Structure formats: structure tokens, C-alpha cells
Amino acid sequence: MLDAAKATQSTTGRKGANAKALKRWRRVSQLCGAAIFGQWSFYGIFRCPFIVPFVSCQSCPVITCHGRIFTLFWGFWLLLPISVFIFGRAFCGWACPAGLVHQLIAKAAPVKLRAGNIATRMAPYLLLLGIGAALYFWWVAGQSREAIPIRTGGFFESVRLTFEHAQAIWIIRTLAVLGVATLGLLVSNTWCRFACPTGGLLEWLKPVSVFNVYKTDRCNDCGKCALICEMDTRPAEANCTNCGDCLAGCPRNAIHIGRRPGRH
């Protein structure tokens, strides 16, 4: 009995150490993602003249944006589908600058909306609204320029002038994005879970992924994994980003990472 208890404690200790190491590596990966995509993301909200940012960089007049300087959008939109087929929605939890910001903000949010709540069950369908809006303005409406990205003085001065001279639809778009993002101060990860078009696309594609964080039949639905998860969900359920934070939090060792048994 004593030996068995020691073995269990040893296993638990190793799992805890491995989980902490995995989370450190995830933070490093997120910081790298912020360094690569951060400025592009920031410009996409405040300076991109199009309603749908990140997809028309080749014709954008904002020459100081990283999307234009390094033609990031080509590599991004080529690699993102590959990543989702390999490891699901991992981009959101491992590389997205907005994901990092919202996860940090979520720590102070008083409302968590854990997995199983009606809103979280509806999350994939709410994400479809973001996808639909993006596709409409990009393909159907023609992705016209709706703002004049005036460049003068410092960045924030340019942002102010852009707002002053932008069309109403661009201002509505930008304020809507900022409003949903700000709501994350009250309800954790509002943007990532309920509104992000890119996250929504990955959410609907992730069932085809080869590798996942997943539950086994040992799971008894205790919900402890959701208490650890920064997206307030459980493995392989809505808004799971394969972050791996929950691996060491299961008292029944029912959570694993890799290729799910029985899948071919």
C-alpha cells in the first residue's frame, strides 16, 4: 500500500512538472507569435483600410505594416490550414497574439462561462456569424477600402486621423471588434470563443486534425480540467485549443495528448 502510494505521488509529481514545462513552452511560443504577428494584428484593427484585415495586404497602402513589408499574409494563410490538419486549433492557444492578450485579460474576468453553459454550447455557431460577416465583406461586397490610412506623426496620431476620415462602416467594424474584445474584461475570452472569424474557421475544421488533447473513457466528468483551462472548456470540446494545460489536472489520468486511439 505504501509503495503504491509513493508510486502514485511520484507519477503525479512528474505529471505536474511536465505540465509546468509545457505551459512555459507555450508561453514562449505565444511570445514568439506576438513578435512575428503582433504588429500586423495591431495594424489590422487600427490602420488597415479594409473591412476584413489580413487578406488584401498586396493592395494595402499602409507600407509600414508588417503584412505589407514581409508579405506575411501569404505564409500565414498557407501555414494555418496545415497547422489545423496536424494539431487542430493549436494556433489560437500557441501562437495567436490576440489569444495571448485575451487569455491574460481573462484571468481578471469575473464571469467564466465554463463548459456546459448554454452560451459555450452555442459558441461554434456564434463563431459562424464572424466567419459569415468576413466572407460577405471580402467576397460579396468586394473588399473596398473604407478608410484613408493617413500617415503622419506618431502611430496614435495616425490612428486618430484615420478614424476622422474613415467611412461609417469601417468605424462600426472597428468599434464592434474593440467592444467585443473589451467585453473580455467581464466575460473571459469573449472574442476568442464567440466572435473571432479565424478562430471560428479553425473550430469547425479541427475535427479532422491528426493529433489532439483528448479524454479517455476513464473521464468521470468531474470538470477539474475546465477549471484549469484558460478557455474554460474541456479537451476536444468547443473552443479547445490543444493548449495542454489540463494534462496534469485530471485526478483520473484521463487526459492525453497525441493521436486518439481508434482513429485511422
Strand content: under 5%
- Spatial shape: elongated
Judged by helices, strands and strand pairing, the structural class is mainly alpha
Instruction: Tell me the count of domains.
Output: 1
For the termini, the CA-CA separation is: 40 Å
> What are the low-pLDDT stretches, counting only 5+ consecutive residues below 50?
none
Q: Level of helix content? A: 55-70%
**Mean pLDDT, nearest integer?**
88
Structural key phrases:
single chain, 264 residues, mainly alpha, two-stranded antiparallel ribbon, 11 helices
Plain-language structure description:
With 264 residues, the protein is mainly alpha-helical. The protein is built from eleven helices and two strands. Strands 1-2 form a two-stranded antiparallel ribbon. Helix 1 (2-46) crosses helix 5 (97-106) and helix 6 (118-140) packs across helix 10.
Explain the layout of strands and helices.
Layout: H1 2-46, H2 66-69, H3 72-87, H4 90-94, H5 97-106, H6 118-140, H7 155-165, H8 168-183, H9 190-194, H10 197-205, E1 212-215, H11 224-228, E2 255-258
Antiparallel strand pairs: 1-2
Summarize the structure.
This protein is mostly helical and 264 residues long.
